[in-house]
Write a structure and sequence with these properties.
Strand content: 35-45%
Distance between the termini: 30 Å
Mean pLDDT: 95
Oligomer: single chain
Structural class: mainly beta
Low-confidence stretches: none
Number of helices: 4
Number of domains: 2
CATH class of the largest domain: Alpha Beta
Strand order of the largest sheet: 13-14-15-16-17-18
CATH architecture of the largest domain: Alpha-Beta Complex
Largest sheet: 6 strands, antiparallel, barrel
Radius of gyration: 18 Å
Order of helices and strands: EEEHEEEEEEHEEHHEEEEEEE
C-alpha cells in the first residue's frame, strides 16, 4: 500500500485491468492501483466541478457516520474525509446523496497555526501505518498532509515532496507552531517529517502519532532517551 483514498476523494482512471484500475488522485496527483469494486465513476461535469473549486470541506470528527439518503445504509467516515457539494447536511456524489450532521471545516475558513496544532493533536496515539491517512493508521507524511488539508492547505503526499515547498529556516529557534521539520538518512534522502510545536517539541508519526523533543541534532525520543531522527531542514509553509 502506498497511500489511501478516503471517502469523498476524487480521481482519474489512467489504466485498467480486469479487477483493478490505476488512478491518479486529484488532491495530490499520487498514482496507485485500487480494486475495481471500490471505484465509483461520476460524470466528467461532476469531476470538473469538484476539481475547479478553490474550496473543499473536510470532516473534523475523529469518527462519524453518514447515511445514504436512498436506502438509509450507514457508512463510517473519519477525520479528513472530503464532503463534496456539502449543503443542508447533505453530501452529494453523482446520483447518491448522504446525510451528515457531524462537524466539518471549509478550507476557506482561514489557515492558522493554532488550527494546525489543534488538528494534529486529534491524531495523538494513532498507530503508524505505511501509506495510511486515517486515525486508524497513518504514516508521517500522510499525517502532515491530512492535518494541513483540514486546516485548508494542500501538501504533496510524500515527505521529500513536502520538503520542496515553503521557506527554509536556518535554526530550530526560528520556527513557529505548525512549521514542518524534515529528517534524512545516511544517504541524505528525506525519510521523515513532523510538525513543530512550542518549546522545542514535535508531533509526528513514528510507531504512533506522538510528541517528542527536537533540537539542532534531530528528534529526541522521550521514551527511549535516544535520538531517533537526524534533522535535515525546517520549512515554513504558512
Amino acid at each position: 500500500m502506498v497511500t489511501q483514498l478516503l471517502f469523498g476523494d476524487h480521481y482519474k482512471i489512467i489504466d485498467e485491468r480486469v479487477n483493478w484500475v490505476k488512478i491518479r488522485s486529484a488532491f495530490d496527483k499520487y498514482e496507485c492501483w485500487i480494486d475495481r469494486k471500490q471505484s465509483y465513476e461520476v460524470s466528467k461535469d461532476i469531476y470538473e466541478e469538484v476539481e475547479t473549486s478553490r474550496k473543499w470541506e473536510s470532516c473534523t470528527d475523529l469518527v462519524n457516520i453518514i447515511q445514504n439518503a436512498k436506502d438509509n445504509d450507514l457508512q463510517p467516515i473519519v477525520m479528513g474525509c472530503a464532503l463534496p457539494f456539502y449543503n443542508d447536511n447533505l453530501v452529494t456524489i453523482g446520483e447518491h446523496a448522504f446525510s451528515f450532521t457531524g462537524n466539518s471545516e471549509l478550507s476557506t475558513a482561514g489557515l492558522s497555526r493554532s488550527k494546525i496544532l489543534e488538528n494534529a493533536l486529534l491524531y495523538i496515539n494513532a498507530p503508524y501505518l505505511w501509506g495510511g491517512k486515517s486515525p486508524f493508521g497513518i504514516d508521517c507524511s500522510g499525517f502532515t498532509q491530512m492535518v494541513y488539508k483540514i486546516a485548508g492547505k494542500k501538501l504533496p503526499r510524500d515527505a521529500y515532496q513536502q520538503a520542496e515547498i515553503g521557506t527554509t529556516l536556518s535554526f530550530v529557534e526560528e520556527s513557529k507552531d505548525g512549521d514542518l521539520a524534515f529528517f534524512d538518512n545516511d544517504e541524505g534522502s528525506i525519510i521523515h517529517v513532523g510538525i513543530l510545536m512550542n518549546e522545542n517539541e514535535i508531533i509526528h508519526a513514528s510507531g504512533k502519532v506522538r510528541i517528542d523533543k527536537i533540537d539542532h541534532q534531530g528528534i529526541y525520543n522521550v521514551d527511549t532517551k535516544t535520538y531517533s531522527h537526524k534533522l535535515r531542514l525546517i520549512k515554513q509553509i504558512i
